[in-house]
Amino acid sequence: VGFISEDEYLEITGITREQSGEYECSASNDVAAPVVQRVKVTVNYPPYISDAKSTGVPVGQKGILMCEASAVPSADFQWYKDDKRLAEGQKGLKVENKAFFSRLTFFNVSEQDYGNYTCVASNQLGNTNASMILYGVRHCGCVWASVQSKGLAAGFHRLALADAKEKRGLGTSILSQHHSSL
């Protein structure tokens, strides 16, 4: 997509963030070689949260809530549980803020950690928020088995959830997870 203007300036009305980028101006005449100048156009916009999902974690395990936001300038993030702001360094929690996401990590989930969490993303142009729930899930009766694949040190692990479902004739659920130990 290009813009053509016979004038010495280019006016883009109703600009959107998708129109951010590098633009090139070329001036030419019959006397000399064309002169080309590039200019970078940055479109500032308020935060937009693109991803925030609720997560289920068993008691005693590590849990993570993520909040992804697009904004220019970059968003600042804050986390709340119910209406109480969470602070960095709070016991058992870690807040990691980057330019386009924030991660709230629970190192040892307890019953008290379950509940509604809100991620607030803000910059000079505005703010937005998204709510997500950290909820409890039960441990399953898991069986881990390691198998070798073509002599490589790659382990394939199968998690067989052979619980009451199988006893009720509902079948066994199988989840596969692959990791390489090379």
UniProtKB/TrEMBL annotation:
Gene3D superfamilies: Immunoglobulins. It is a lipid-anchor; GPI-anchor. SMART domains: IG (SM00409), IGc2 (SM00408). Residues 46-135 form the Ig-like domain. It comes from the Eukaryota. Transmembrane segments: none annotated. One of its GO terms (cellular component) is plasma membrane. Coiled coil: none annotated. Keywords: Cell adhesion, Cell membrane, Disulfide bond, Glycoprotein, GPI-anchor, Immunoglobulin domain, Lipoprotein, Membrane, Repeat, Signal. The keyword NADP does not apply. GO terms for biological process: cell adhesion. PANTHER family: IGLON FAMILY OF IMMUNOGLOBULIN SUPERFAMILY-RELATED, NEUROTRIMIN. InterPro entries: Ig-like_dom, Ig-like_dom_sf, Ig-like_fold, Ig_sub, Ig_sub2, IgLON_domain, Immunoglobulin_dom. This is Neurotrimin. Belongs to the immunoglobulin superfamily. IgLON family.
